[in-house]
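Quick note —
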Amino acid sequence: KFICRTTDASDRITQITFSPDEKLLATTSWDGGARVYDVKTGKRVFRKEYRFAEDAIFTVDGDYLVINATNKEGNSVDFWSTNDFAFLRSQFANKIARRRLAPVPLLSNSLVAVGNWEISIVDVATDFTTHVVPHQSESVFEQFTFDNTGTILVTDSDDDTVRFFDWQNDK
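Predicted structure written out below.
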């Protein structure tokens, strides 16, 4: 059964993700837009324009929206409250670093931001970096994910390797 359609983006959608309760849907697109929609109605409830928006994720508890984007100051990770979509802060500002985002399962307010040579585990609610996983070579992280328990971090790199980390035990 078809639910709804939106034609809000003017260029290719680059990423789509549901909120944990599946009531919201976040998208990013080549037109620089980061948008959030109400899943039942298709109505846009949030929009932020950037030069380029690469990723948007929700924290595991759904309290925060996190956007990886490029604006006139450079690349940053922006944190927004999903209660009222109030802007909280930017972090990891860097004019050249490319970053990826992923929620950390079973760790309520944590998320991951990736720089070129390390992965930082950040608690969005407290603005505290709990762990930093350094890279094991001269190559950069391209993609990463966690197992369902949030214990094992798996990365791939531009040197064609896949690495497994028990990041909570620094292994």
